[in-house]
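Slide 14.
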Amino acid sequence: MKYYKRHIERKEPSVVLVPYTKKLVLYLKNQGIQKILQYDVSTSPDDLIKLVKEYSQTRKIREWVIDTKLDCEDLVLALRNNKVFSTLIDNCTNSRLLADKNIYPTPLFDKSDLDWKGYNGIIKGGLKELNINKTSLSSSFEIKRKSKNILISFGGEDPNELTIHTMKALKFLDKKYEILVIIGPLFSHEKKIKKLNQEIGHRFKLVEKCYDLSNYIFNSDCLITAIGTTLFEALALKTPSVVLSNYRSDIIDEIKLRKFKNISPMGYYQKIINSNDLLLNAVKQRLNTTNYL
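Slide 15: predicted structure.
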């Protein structure tokens, strides 16, 4: 379970509580977060609360933000018993019904997708929230122009190694396009990526230790990514995107993505493994039809 700042426009917490993970701590520090408290995953919820109070030298915790998709009912109940305001991020388990506030930092969120019967807390998310973020984010950039840049970014971990599958599919794309590959801070397949790039004559430009993708996203003619924060930032910056799904269960989000004209959902990633041309052709089509407002 991870408790840390990850999404666009999120308020920076006073203390970030994370499990013992060297790469994760380094990632947070590179984002300018210094107050990081590490803990053992076997620690009980009550002991976690005591740990934070001691570290913060405070008797009262104002708000506890939990960023996890996992069930965290025990922790939320412990927070309630200690009269601590709890906020869950992007959580669809029954834990959300016990939290004081739920935030879904995605334009794909629809309140009616989940059963909220009996819940009286705060719910934020959906297209309305994205439109608010669009204004503040896009105002930092000038009018978009074609750059002949393509960006491949699959988040901080890329559990299914979609970066490698995408590189294999795009290695024969016209060389007038520069293809940038973001190596996330928690990638376990970094060496595989570098080896593949060497084997195909360094066709791709590899980017490491990058903790703010905004400029790369904005200055790309096409982004290849998965469903997640990077895609939502691309929506705000009006960058055309081709989207692969990590899980078959992403089908609901894929259907919602079809209403966005500059997004091409490809479905479950196994499709492009079986036929690299599918992804290559989708990217070519997106590049040929790209028009910036």
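Speaker note: The chain has a mean pLDDT of 85.
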